[in-house]
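Deliverable D4.2, example record:
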Amino acid sequence: MALALVPLPTRAVVDETTAPTLTAIIGAQRRLDATTSARELARGVTAHVEMASRLLARAGKTPYAADVAAAASEAAGFAAWLHADMYDIGSARAYYRMAIARARQAGQDLLAGYMLGSLAAFETDAGDPELGLTLVGEARQQIGATPHPSPRAWLDATEALSFAAARRDGDAAAHALARAAKAIDADRRTEPPPWPWVFPFDHAKLAGYRALVAVRLTRPGDALAAFTESLSAAQPAPKQRAVIMLEVATAARQDGAARRDSDRIDESFRLACEALGVGMTYSSERIIDRARRFRREYTGPATSYVRDFDDQLRSALL
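Output generated by the structure prediction step:
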């Protein structure tokens, strides 16, 4: 009779604490990303995405469904980021699409626009910048006339990079970068950007995009100057720093080729070696693939620095 008074366990209930709890978990996982390989994080994050999806299904037509959908979108977006770092293109694409769908289900236009813009950047980097341009247009329609400049400036900068990669269109890229700069300059408010943007998209961040555009357009002098401006403002996390180092190395290699400066080319391969070392430490297939791309683009003589890089690249691929 005493056992009859013990309540039976029930399924988890979706309530006002569900979405904040899901968001807190993905926040903690994101903080680990700076010092942990994507492969180590991915299993836990994908399990979190599946749990968020199950809770969303249970939320049904409750008042909490929209907030749970937004949390599920954020989790799927992070899963996409990790799979992109593992160079699992198909899975990354699928998770980005899930993130967009969940954000729309939540009725969060800014969140959906952010995920669309992230997918645009991913597709551009994966070799389809024309699709990236299309997705930027969709993202711009999704966010609408947001008063804060960060979303608009970020999309303009992403579009500039897509123009440079897709069509080598320096004029279109320059116009997009100018729109981004104008949006930043026109705003004099101090409030933070709207979620999911955590930090303002400022001139230092825009300088990073200017540098990437210049690399795509083979303008190494402009690229190196913009990289100096961007990196003087903040130090990125190790994996992102390695990606930037490979871009700097590309600009230095372009500059060395234009000047016929072998020392400059050697310096570019030294930088690329350092970046590749970070990629190997963190098992980042994205960094390793970019290092392979860096090597394929070089057709000059094999100096000792080039041979050292080749040896390190071979060890990364074996």
